[in-house]
């Protein structure tokens, strides 16, 4: 038995759920334009090399402090049904079933929130979920702290290594499917790294290293348009 790890945004689904969430939250009035702008500025600073994404995600999670968890969970469920559920790539479902037939464990490895990730795992009948989860106090309110390490970049590799170790599986026997160069720390340690609709940096790296580059297609009806927005905005949900 091996483990097949799957990224979510632009890999299993053909869009960035974080950008879609920000647009919807802004339309519903749950966040202000200033909050959306601040999040975008953090992402811009990350791309310019001024801050790490781990710092940006940690800052976003801290802004949840004091907010009740249940309303965000409920809004995420509606968001999933309305926006995300129709976005699965056709080839993603094929790859999942191939690994399932081979007896592999199927694990979501994503920077998205636990609220969204659990819905994805239920839909796809996955065996495990590795994502960003938020600490909640005894009164059902977010503390502003993450549960465990930030699941991004090196943090993704840390949680993947821990999962494989607990499952008694060597990472050299595992596969990982992703679109993002930020996931390079995981791709470098698994036996089968696969670039799915990769960004330009990952595509270049995959070609240099001889990693497979695959297309899983787009869902029927194409993909929704979204304005520029951060790929991970845990302060508002997915």
Automatic annotation (TrEMBL):
Q: Which UniProt keywords apply?
A: Hydrolase, Magnesium, Metal-binding
Magnesium among keywords? yes
According to the record, the signal peptide region is none
State the Pfam families in the record: HAD (PF12710)
Residue ranges under compositional bias (Pro residues)?
225-238
Extract the ranges annotated as region (Disordered): 216-238
Extract the PANTHER family matched here.
PHOSPHATASE RV3661-RELATED, PHOSPHOSERINE PHOSPHATASE
State the name under which the record lists this protein.
Answer: HAD family phosphatase
Lineage, opening ranks: Bacteria, Pseudomonadati, Myxococcota, Myxococcia, Myxococcales
